[in-house]
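@channel sequence for tomorrow's demo:
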Amino acid sequence: MRERLPSLVALLLLTLLVISTWWAANYTLSTVELDPPRRETHEPDTWATQFVMLRTNEDGIAINRLEGDYMVHYPDDDSYHLDEVFVTINQIQNPIITAESNHAIMDQEGARIQLSGDAQIHRQADAEDNPFSIRSEHLVLYPNQDTIETDEPAVVVNGPNTLQGVGMTYNNNTRQLHVHRDSRVTLTPTSPSATTTHE
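C-alpha coordinates (generated this afternoon):
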Protein backbone atom coordinates (compact mmCIF):
# COMPACT_ATOMS: atom_id res chain seq x y z
CA MET A 1 0.00 0.00 0.00
CA ARG A 2 2.86 2.36 0.84
CA GLU A 3 4.28 1.79 -2.62
CA ARG A 4 0.99 2.92 -4.24
CA LEU A 5 0.48 5.97 -2.03
CA PRO A 6 2.78 8.33 -4.01
CA SER A 7 1.05 7.30 -7.25
CA LEU A 8 -2.40 7.92 -5.77
CA VAL A 9 -1.33 11.33 -4.44
CA ALA A 10 0.14 12.25 -7.84
CA LEU A 11 -3.08 11.14 -9.58
CA LEU A 12 -5.21 13.13 -7.16
CA LEU A 13 -3.09 16.26 -7.64
CA LEU A 14 -3.24 15.84 -11.42
CA THR A 15 -7.05 15.51 -11.28
CA LEU A 16 -7.32 18.64 -9.11
CA LEU A 17 -5.05 20.49 -11.56
CA VAL A 18 -7.21 19.52 -14.55
CA ILE A 19 -10.43 20.51 -12.75
CA SER A 20 -9.02 23.86 -11.62
CA THR A 21 -7.66 24.60 -15.11
CA TRP A 22 -11.05 23.80 -16.69
CA TRP A 23 -12.84 26.02 -14.15
CA ALA A 24 -10.42 28.91 -14.67
CA ALA A 25 -10.79 28.71 -18.47
CA ASN A 26 -14.59 28.71 -18.29
CA TYR A 27 -14.61 31.54 -15.79
CA THR A 28 -12.36 33.62 -18.04
CA LEU A 29 -14.54 33.00 -21.12
CA SER A 30 -17.69 33.94 -19.25
CA THR A 31 -16.38 37.18 -17.75
CA VAL A 32 -13.95 38.61 -20.31
CA GLU A 33 -14.91 39.66 -23.86
CA LEU A 34 -12.12 38.26 -25.98
CA ASP A 35 -13.55 39.82 -29.16
CA PRO A 36 -15.72 42.82 -28.25
CA PRO A 37 -18.22 44.00 -30.89
CA ARG A 38 -16.91 46.49 -33.40
CA ARG A 39 -17.85 50.08 -32.69
CA GLU A 40 -19.92 51.32 -35.61
CA THR A 41 -19.64 55.05 -36.01
CA HIS A 42 -20.59 57.10 -39.06
CA GLU A 43 -17.13 56.83 -40.57
CA PRO A 44 -16.41 55.49 -44.07
CA ASP A 45 -14.80 52.11 -44.52
CA THR A 46 -14.67 51.97 -48.34
CA TRP A 47 -14.27 54.46 -51.14
CA ALA A 48 -13.96 54.32 -54.93
CA THR A 49 -13.56 56.64 -57.90
CA GLN A 50 -15.01 56.22 -61.39
CA PHE A 51 -17.12 53.31 -60.19
CA VAL A 52 -19.82 51.20 -61.85
CA MET A 53 -22.34 49.00 -59.98
CA LEU A 54 -24.57 46.50 -61.79
CA ARG A 55 -27.59 44.47 -60.66
CA THR A 56 -28.84 41.61 -62.82
CA ASN A 57 -32.02 39.55 -62.88
CA GLU A 58 -32.20 35.76 -62.67
CA ASP A 59 -31.37 35.51 -66.39
CA GLY A 60 -28.16 37.51 -65.95
CA ILE A 61 -29.55 40.59 -67.72
CA ALA A 62 -28.46 43.93 -66.24
CA ILE A 63 -31.58 45.71 -64.99
CA ASN A 64 -29.96 48.41 -62.82
CA ARG A 65 -26.72 50.27 -63.51
CA LEU A 66 -25.25 52.95 -61.27
CA GLU A 67 -22.07 54.86 -62.06
CA GLY A 68 -20.40 57.97 -60.77
CA ASP A 69 -17.22 59.90 -60.07
CA TYR A 70 -16.85 59.16 -56.37
CA MET A 71 -18.36 56.77 -53.81
CA VAL A 72 -18.00 56.39 -50.03
CA HIS A 73 -19.58 53.57 -48.00
CA TYR A 74 -20.67 53.98 -44.36
CA PRO A 75 -21.00 50.66 -42.48
CA ASP A 76 -23.20 51.91 -39.62
CA ASP A 77 -26.24 52.36 -41.89
CA ASP A 78 -24.89 50.51 -44.95
CA SER A 79 -25.31 53.60 -47.14
CA TYR A 80 -23.36 54.74 -50.18
CA HIS A 81 -22.76 58.47 -50.69
CA LEU A 82 -22.15 59.26 -54.34
CA ASP A 83 -21.05 62.21 -56.49
CA GLU A 84 -21.95 62.93 -60.15
CA VAL A 85 -24.29 59.98 -60.41
CA PHE A 86 -25.86 58.40 -63.48
CA VAL A 87 -28.45 55.62 -63.07
CA THR A 88 -30.07 53.37 -65.68
CA ILE A 89 -33.19 51.33 -64.85
CA ASN A 90 -33.96 48.67 -67.46
CA GLN A 91 -37.02 46.75 -66.29
CA ILE A 92 -37.80 44.64 -69.36
CA GLN A 93 -41.55 45.31 -69.44
CA ASN A 94 -41.16 49.11 -69.02
CA PRO A 95 -39.47 51.93 -70.94
CA ILE A 96 -35.86 52.55 -69.88
CA ILE A 97 -35.39 55.24 -67.26
CA THR A 98 -32.16 57.16 -66.73
CA ALA A 99 -31.42 59.48 -63.82
CA GLU A 100 -28.61 61.85 -62.94
CA SER A 101 -27.73 64.27 -60.17
CA ASN A 102 -24.82 66.02 -58.51
CA HIS A 103 -25.09 63.88 -55.37
CA ALA A 104 -26.95 60.78 -54.22
CA ILE A 105 -27.36 58.42 -51.28
CA MET A 106 -28.10 54.76 -51.95
CA ASP A 107 -29.37 52.69 -49.02
CA GLN A 108 -31.86 49.95 -48.10
CA GLU A 109 -29.60 47.45 -49.89
CA GLY A 110 -29.90 49.37 -53.13
CA ALA A 111 -33.70 49.62 -53.03
CA ARG A 112 -33.65 53.43 -52.63
CA ILE A 113 -31.55 56.11 -54.32
CA GLN A 114 -31.97 59.69 -53.09
CA LEU A 115 -30.86 62.09 -55.80
CA SER A 116 -30.03 65.70 -54.89
CA GLY A 117 -28.62 68.70 -56.68
CA ASP A 118 -30.10 69.27 -60.17
CA ALA A 119 -31.74 65.83 -60.10
CA GLN A 120 -33.19 64.73 -63.44
CA ILE A 121 -35.02 61.60 -64.52
CA HIS A 122 -35.74 60.74 -68.15
CA ARG A 123 -38.02 58.02 -69.51
CA GLN A 124 -37.41 56.95 -73.07
CA ALA A 125 -40.19 57.15 -75.61
CA ASP A 126 -41.94 54.00 -76.73
CA ALA A 127 -44.83 53.10 -79.05
CA GLU A 128 -47.37 54.38 -76.50
CA ASP A 129 -45.74 57.37 -74.81
CA ASN A 130 -43.66 60.45 -75.56
CA PRO A 131 -40.29 61.08 -73.92
CA PHE A 132 -40.86 62.04 -70.30
CA SER A 133 -38.67 63.82 -67.77
CA ILE A 134 -38.85 65.09 -64.20
CA ARG A 135 -36.50 67.72 -62.80
CA SER A 136 -36.16 68.79 -59.15
CA GLU A 137 -33.58 69.53 -56.50
CA HIS A 138 -34.47 66.27 -54.78
CA LEU A 139 -35.87 63.06 -56.28
CA VAL A 140 -36.15 59.60 -54.72
CA LEU A 141 -35.82 56.66 -57.06
CA TYR A 142 -36.94 53.11 -56.18
CA PRO A 143 -35.28 50.94 -58.86
CA ASN A 144 -36.92 47.64 -57.89
CA GLN A 145 -40.41 49.17 -57.93
CA ASP A 146 -39.62 51.41 -60.92
CA THR A 147 -41.16 54.42 -59.15
CA ILE A 148 -40.05 57.99 -58.45
CA GLU A 149 -41.20 60.50 -55.85
CA THR A 150 -40.40 63.93 -54.45
CA ASP A 151 -41.85 66.29 -51.86
CA GLU A 152 -40.23 69.35 -53.43
CA PRO A 153 -41.10 71.54 -56.44
CA ALA A 154 -40.61 69.71 -59.72
CA VAL A 155 -41.01 70.29 -63.43
CA VAL A 156 -42.28 67.57 -65.74
CA VAL A 157 -41.83 67.66 -69.51
CA ASN A 158 -43.95 65.14 -71.39
CA GLY A 159 -43.40 65.50 -75.12
CA PRO A 160 -44.58 69.04 -75.96
CA ASN A 161 -46.31 69.51 -72.59
CA THR A 162 -44.99 71.00 -69.36
CA LEU A 163 -46.28 70.51 -65.83
CA GLN A 164 -45.14 72.16 -62.61
CA GLY A 165 -46.11 71.25 -59.08
CA VAL A 166 -44.97 70.58 -55.54
CA GLY A 167 -44.61 66.94 -54.62
CA MET A 168 -44.98 64.21 -57.22
CA THR A 169 -45.12 60.44 -57.55
CA TYR A 170 -44.54 58.64 -60.84
CA ASN A 171 -45.06 54.91 -61.45
CA ASN A 172 -43.31 53.63 -64.56
CA ASN A 173 -45.31 50.38 -64.42
CA THR A 174 -48.68 52.11 -64.80
CA ARG A 175 -47.35 55.35 -66.42
CA GLN A 176 -49.31 57.35 -63.83
CA LEU A 177 -48.10 60.69 -62.49
CA HIS A 178 -49.65 62.06 -59.31
CA VAL A 179 -49.04 65.73 -58.45
CA HIS A 180 -49.57 66.53 -54.78
CA ARG A 181 -50.33 70.27 -54.86
CA ASP A 182 -49.89 73.63 -56.61
CA SER A 183 -50.03 72.09 -60.06
CA ARG A 184 -49.90 74.16 -63.23
CA VAL A 185 -50.62 72.00 -66.23
CA THR A 186 -50.86 72.53 -69.97
CA LEU A 187 -51.79 69.36 -71.87
CA THR A 188 -52.84 69.00 -75.50
CA PRO A 189 -56.06 66.96 -75.90
CA THR A 190 -54.54 64.48 -78.35
CA SER A 191 -51.31 63.85 -76.41
CA PRO A 192 -50.85 60.19 -75.32
CA SER A 193 -49.31 61.41 -72.09
CA ALA A 194 -49.14 59.80 -68.71
CA THR A 195 -52.39 59.90 -66.75
CA THR A 196 -52.15 62.90 -64.41
CA THR A 197 -54.01 63.53 -61.16
CA HIS A 198 -53.56 66.34 -58.68
CA GLU A 199 -54.90 67.50 -55.37
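heads up for whoever presents: The mean pLDDT is 84.
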